Amino acid sequence: MRFKDGHIRLSSEEVVMGALCWTIAVVASIFTFGLTVALAMVLSVAYVHVQREQEEKMMQLATSYSSSLEELALTIEYLRTYEEYLPRVDSERLQEPFLKIAEKLRALPEEYEDLWSPIKKECNRSLRFLHRYNRQYLHISRERHQDFFSGRVYHNGYGFNEEQIDAILTNDYSNLVVAGPGAGKTRVLTSRVAFFVKKKQIAEERILVLTFNNSAAEEVRTRLKERFEIKNVDVSTFHSLGLRILRGSGGVGRNAILDRIEHVKKEIIDQLRESDEEFGGLFLWHQTIWGKGEKDARHTDEQFDAIAHESYTAIDGTSVKSLAERDIANFFIRHGIRYEYEKNVDWCDSDPEDPKRTYCPDFYLPDYDVYIEHWSVTEDGTTPPFYTAEESERYRKSMGWKREQFEKHNKVLWETNHTMFAQGTLRSELESRLLSIGARLSQLSYRELLETAGLDDSPSGRVSEAIMNALTAAKTYGLTPDSLAERVRGQDVRSKQAHLESVFILDLVIPVFGVYEDYLREKNKIDFEDMINKAVRILDGADNDGPNSIVGAYEHIMVDEFQDISFQRLQLLKNIHKLNPGSRLFCVGDDWQAIYGFAGSSSKYMIRFGDHFRQHERVDLVQNYRNPSDILEFCSLTIDRCKEKLNKKLIPIDDGEDTSQTPVMVHSISAGDEWEFKREQNKIVFNRIKDLLKQGLKSSQILVLSRFNHGLADLRQMCEDSQEIPVQLTKNGKIVRNGVKFMTVHKSKGLEADYVFLLNVSEGLYGFPPNFVGGMEFRVIHEDLPDPEDEERRLFFVAVTRARRECNIFVQRERKSKFLTENEWYLSHYCPRLKRTFQGRIVDEREKAYEIEVILSKYTNHKIWVPKSVIYTLSDDGDGVKTFMLEEWWFKREAENKGKEC
User: Fold this and answer.
1) N or C terminus: which one in the chain shows less Cβ crowding within 10 Å?
2) What is the pLDDT of residues 53-90, one digit of tens each?
3) For residue 331, what are the CA distances in angstroms to 65, 127, 364?
4) Nearest to 313 by CA among 144, 111, 454, 472
């Protein structure tokens, strides 16, 4: 190569070599392309082969999954008829294989989506079916059993709301129904029993219904029998079931229940103090720790005064039949006269009206061989106004026969009558007669009266009472002496109170507990707590592989008023459920109405239902068919301050727009002391009841409530003496005369009335809530003991929600209960401030001022005098009501606090 004339010139050799290279390059390219094409063809064939194998494999997988889904679909085919409820655990078990297939399908190659898509859809369809099954079951069952739920067949046309139907139909292995007041929970329970008997053909004997007292059990039996003709369902109280288990296992005899339990415990304490030097020394040491102060002494004074005035109960605890008989018994007690109440006599002839009946005169004085009969007639022989003509004639005949018996058998009879009681001469009459036969009327000291009343206010009396309370609490929670000691020693005690209580239990309670249990074993006796505790221990060792002879075979176990469950009852319930595999547990209650903490119940077991029955369904019954909206709003705010509760929003029937009704009437009475307040309170209630009766209201629709029984006695007697207000009379738990009902709030649970009068909602030892003096709480025994203040809040809620139309609450203005002063509804309705623009009526006028009745709320009016120069009329609203506006400067200076009642 060389450079010539500005260009590169190639030699001939270079030209030949270049041509040769190009030729070789072209040939090589042709050869390489062939190899490449050949290789590509080989690879293509291989690829197609692999793809075919992959497709065949995917087709096989698809066939396998489809086949599996078809088999799985058969396992749920029985559900397609929607005949039965599907428990959650069974639903999860059925969903599990579908979920596994769905997970595998998600992991497969996306390019075969067309292949997987139908399978995924089928799998998801089955999962959706199972997920939505119960919702659809409830819907279909409502339609399928419309005759039952409409109320046409069994409930006189009164049907069920949607939540009530859901509660009846929901049938998991464990079910909780949270029902507010007036929500029809007992109706739901009995209707659920009827549904499974009538519609699901469950044998009556395979259903167990548990209640907490005999009256509730009888109510359930009566409803089942009268409404559904169901007679063989096992309806039982927890204690009677426990006793049945004990007797069925040969654990106790027929007369095994111990009488006079508290007396036996007290004797054991006294014996240990005398015979055991160490125990006696520890007892004295604890007396110094738990001694009483001045405040506690006032506490005892108030307790004694309450007991001395308790309706139909004498100071010594004797139950009598009238206030007059109470006063007679108390007279004898105060003056040291021994008496016997309704002592059976064997010296008289047979009663011609009832030869089998024994004669029991009202009082017998054994030291003087004198009998006393207190007649219900007046001095002129008039019988009570509520007696029928037939009853009056029968009573007079009975009086005549009794007088004849005393005369015939030469026995001494003193007679007293209602006139003496009404005029206040009864005590002087008794004193005169006793002095006439030479009786010595000593006056018992206050200390002696306290001991008679069971209110020993000495340090030793208080320590003995605390020992007995701790022993009862321990047995209520199923503890033995050993387990109690182990529990107390094992606790991390941090507060001084808890430390002192722990030492007290170890020093005094454990020794007494041990001797008491030995006593029961030696006498072959059980106490009230043992009925359940021993039954639980028997069932703990029972075979749980199937039905057994101890508790019977049950498919359904239902519990009424579940909020009242105690630790020991809960253990019994869990054991029965466990011994009947597959059985369905149904518990209905309202934790807002748990008021029996003093008997060992705790709302915590309902609030924490899932801790004890993990797989469960909950249905809320919040539609209230009893109370106006104002009542529900007012008392729900009291519950809001409870430390622990289940949240729910109660729905009233009314919308709260009716301003003509005043469902919550708070009567604030100014009084110098408690007795002046009670006199004014009783007068207002008495006159209001008379007015209601004149307006045509039935007396049975009036309910008078008090936190304590002794708060009712005077008002009840006023009504009975007036002969204008009939008072309900009960005998052996049965109503023998209809009338106004007087009772404690605890006893009113489950009742309702158009008009409720709630007495003494004030501060104080016997107020509402009561100001109990602090003492031992024994939370070291069990952490589930209810909070005392929360218990009172629930009790107040129960009291107010008894009212269908109107609840009248009476409070001493100087001692208002915290249940009012902390309640926002009460403060806004009864304690509103006067506003610059307001409605009112002019009720009086002077030259320069108006007296105006200000309408602060539909519950509260307030009268004020306003200078004419500072007030303007904005509108005339009719019926004498006008809208006014005040001058701003005068309003700020003078009127801002006027009308503020609280």
Assistant:
1) N
2) 666 777 777 777 777 888 888 888 899 999 999 999 99
3) 92, 79, 14
4) 454
Residue type, 67: S
Distances (CA, A) of 24 to 14, 16, 30, 35, 268: 15, 12, 10, 17, 126
Q: 859-863: which pairs have CB atoms within 8 A and are 24 or more residues apart?
A: 859/662, 859/664, 859/665, 859/666, 859/829, 859/830, 860/829, 860/830, 860/831, 860/832, 860/899, 860/901, 862/834, 862/898, 862/899, 862/901
**Residue 351: band (very low, low, confident or very high) from pLDDT cuts 50, 70, 90:** confident
CA distance 122 to 118: 6
The three-class DSSP label of residue 624 is coil
687-736 per-position pLDDT tens digit:
999 999 999 999 999 999 999 887 888 898 888 887 788 988 876 667 77
- From 196, 164, 190, select the one nearest 619 (Cα to Cα): 164
Are 768 and 669 part of one and the same domain? Answer: yes
Angle at 718 between CA 713 and CA 722, to 5 degrees: 150
- For the beta carbon of residue 378, count every other beta carbon within 10 angstroms: 14
Q: Is 236 left (phi over 0), alpha (psi -120 to 50) or beta?
A: beta
- Asked whether residue 42 falls in the same domain as residue 125, the answer is yes
CA distance 594 to 605: 11
What pTM does this model have?
A: 0.74
Show the DSSP H helices in 553-709 as ranges.
567-579, 604-607, 609-612, 629-640, 674-694
% of the chain residues with pLDDT over 70: 83
Supply the DSSP string of 694-754, one letter for each residue: HTT--GGGEEEEESSGGGTHHHHHHHHHHSSS-B-EEETTEEEE--BEEEEHHHHTT--EE
pLDDT band at 102 (very low <50, low <70, confident <90, very high): confident
Backbone angles phi, psi at 170, to 5 degrees: -60, 125
What pLDDT does residue 836 have? 81
Report how many helices (DSSP H) and strands (DSSP E) the chain contains, helices first: 32, 24
Q: Residue 760 half-sphere exposure, CB side, CA atoms within 13 Å?
A: 28
**Cβ-contact 568, 529 below 8 angstroms:** yes
Q: How far apart are CA 115 and CA 62, in angstroms?
A: 7
Q: How far is CA 580 from CA 171, 189, 235, 544, 583, in A?
A: 15, 20, 17, 7, 6
- State the pLDDT confidence band at 547, using cuts at 50, 70 and 90: very low
* Gap between the Cα atoms of 269 and 277, Å rounded: 13
303 has pLDDT over 50: no
Cβ neighbours of residue 327 closer than 8 Å, sequence gap 6 or more:
421, 426, 427
What's 506's DSSP letter?
I
Binning pLDDT at 50, 70 and 90, where does residue 894 land? low
Record the tokens describing residue 582, joined without a space.
């597959």
Number of domains into which the chain is organized: 6
- Tell whether 252 is covered by a domain: no
How far lies 614's CA from each of 244, 248, 409, 537, 594, in Å?
A: 29, 31, 72, 23, 22
Average pLDDT of the chain to the nearest whole number: 83
User: Do 49 and 30 fall within a single domain?
Assistant: yes
Residue 452 structure tokens: 């008679």
Asked if the model's pLDDT at residue 509 lies above 90, the reply is yes
Same domain, 699 and 811: yes
Are 503 and 374 members of one domain? no
* Whether residue 66 is found in the same domain as residue 54: yes
| Cα 851 to chain centroid, rounded | 49
> How would residue 206 be classed by pLDDT, with cut points 50, 70 and 90?
very high
Model confidence at 204: pLDDT above 90: yes
- Say how far apart CA 307 and CA 474 lie, in whole Å: 28
Q: What is the dihedral of CA 252, 255, 261, 264, to 10 degrees?
A: -90
